[in-house]
Amino acid sequence: MKHRRLRIAWSVTWGIVAVLLIALWVRSYWCAEAFTQILSTNRQHGWGVKSSARNFPGNIEYCSDKFTSGSILSTGWRYGYWGKTISQMKEEHPIGFKLLWDKDYKTVRIPHWSAAVLVCVMVRSCAVADHRYEEDTRMRR
To answer: pLDDT category, 71, cuts 50, 70, 90?
Structure first.
């Protein structure tokens, strides 16, 4: 079996990612949260770029936008959550796909289920490849 340990490590890694993603999905119905990174390109005038990964009820969203602020901004990572109820968040951010891409603002939103399916396909693809390799080696004997 060629590269057997690598295939096992690949499957285990994607399996862990799948479990963590499902846990994030379940958590999204109790808490809407975001990890935000602010990169200030001009600290004197307060211009910069803000990137964030958000966990809304049923959705994962990546957002990047340019902003201008009158004050000097501190850069770095921040964790935050919305004080709104989950029902309000569901109305403002319905479950579904969203792609918004213009010069200053970029947003990609996908439902948790689609990300979970993609990760499960990654796990399964390694198992299928391993099974086919075993069949090929048996037929050659």
So the answer is: low
pLDDT per position as a tens digit, 16-55 = 888 888 888 888 888 888 888 887 666 666 677 888 888 8
Domain that holds residue 13: 4-140
pLDDT (mean) for 4-12: 81
Reference 17, options 113, 97, 127, 122; nearest CA is: 122
Contacts of residue 56, Cβ cutoff 8 Å, sequence gap at least 6: 28, 32, 89, 93, 109
Total domains present in the chain: 1
